[in-house]
């Protein structure tokens, strides 16, 4: 009975609505101006149909400009989201879904000096389960040399982050002093906040830089000239142009004549961090593994254990931070990895025929002494810039 009453009420409501609509239509017939507006609307509808038809004819005739702008828009979106791998570069079939990168946010206390003790060593603990599949399989996990995450090589392949060449690098270096950076730490662009990222994107757009495209020396110098002119409203000095050319050579270690997009993006990201954030804020980006390597490096340079090193020794640390061990040295028992300065007794310290005596002055007392906090502040940008797996030097130290 309740159902029947409900249906009857529904029918009555429909009838009432129908009567109201009929009365409204009768009122419209009595207003000629309303009728004219309706006729005008019909005319506009005909015009819209003509425009749609014309658009379809243009689409059949050939490619249009909106298609190109949509492709460019997609490239800028990948850059904004921190996705370094183009979707077309590998087949997505049977692959895991890439993670959604969340850019960091600045905190109120970021600019305050952090408490990083030289005497108190930090305990380094890696995760026990794979970051991707969250399964524990003991020795088959590959640790990141920067953060605490560990991975299966199979999971990295299914994510699309492990290609043919890089697969060999991971398996050979992940458990050595050289180490391997995961896809989070390998991308320096992920250190930028959303505001900093939009600032970088605006600069790249103004200088006509296309995401994903390699840059030649002329392209790189032209970009540096434009950025300098926009910032200082004057031509870049010749000395800075020479330094920019040296930076290009550092980003092109294989002498290909161009630099890869990801290397260029990492270089610009660390440059922007240096300009915008104070050194205390950069120090807060260091991971426990990086801080521990920095301690090892400082103690190796502080031969007399007085808590101070010379300015030239600090500069030596800056220049040697990017040096990678040769393959025959990977199994050697060295105390400082390739992301840390090489001590005087290290077999790699004489690489390229340069002895420590040619780099350092005769005595440490003739120059300014630097303590542990000063050492960190002077080298923090170079420690961060050494994160990527690429052989490129993303921040060329000054001579």
Automatic annotation (TrEMBL):
Residues 29-39 have a biased composition (Basic and acidic residues). Keywords: Metal-binding, Zinc, Zinc-finger. The keyword Zinc applies. It comes from the Eukaryota. The keyword RNA-binding does not apply. One of its GO terms (molecular function) is transcription corepressor activity. This is PHF24 protein. It comes from Spizella passerina.
